[in-house]
Amino acid sequence: MYDSKARYVRSLFSKVPLEYDLLLGLLTFGQDRKWRAFVVEQTEPLPDSVVLDVATGTGLLAADFANAVANKGLVVGVDLTLSMLETAKERLRLKGLTGRTDWVLARAENLPFRDDCFRSASISLALRNVSDARMTFREMARATTPGGVVISLDFARPPNRLFRLIYYDYLLGLFPIFGRVVSRAWGRTLSYLGRSILKSRTGNQIATLMVEEGLPDTRPVPLTQGIVYAVYGRKR
Ligand SMILES: C[S@@+](CC[C@H](N)C(=O)[O-])C[C@H]1O[C@@H](n2cnc3c(N)ncnc32)[C@H](O)[C@@H]1O
Predict the structure, then answer these.
(1) Does pTM surpass 0.90?
(2) How many domains does one find in the chain?
């Protein structure tokens, strides 16, 4: 079942997969690579790990995980937008990572996996997009094995006021204009991105939610002046 937010989000992302990787890199000045590297480092994937990437999109993070787990491991990417998953599958095939990946069309709030079956579970740049963040963490924690890491990386409102002023101009002014130059769909997607970041949870709020969903010792870490927060905890 898809609620109205899920339908809206799916309609946005279904039209942007081809340019997604390039635009993300351009708009974040390449910082997105560092953020993903941080996520992979915190989850400590072993060569034979089976790891889950929720709301995987075009599989950027899944590719980094697939490189980290090596031949014996497996990365399972979940998303509710079919065209994003198809793009992920093709991009990782071209990188020679097909044997280490599996793709599942499903919702973050209702993961079709057994309890305790993944070494780690991640959600990157997508917590703002899910319909139910609490349910998403509950499901990620359920599917992760005890001792494994659950991690969220997402855009946030930077804490420094001066930096925030400059950043908001960029985000709310320049982003949608730039998007519209690329296509109508990108105009919509980037204007949604700005609006959703203004309403985003703080790192501490995300950490509290994760603790409430069974992930004690969860901590938020700001990256790039707090443009994004990585928040992660270990399942007991
Ligand atoms: C901004 S993209 C992020 C993709 C990728 N994780 C990354 O870091 O680049 C957001 C993705 O979340 C997916 N998504 C949004 N809500 C979802 C949900 N409830 N369940 C599964 N996927 C969802 C969208 O389809 C889209 O592919």
Answers:
(1) yes
(2) 1
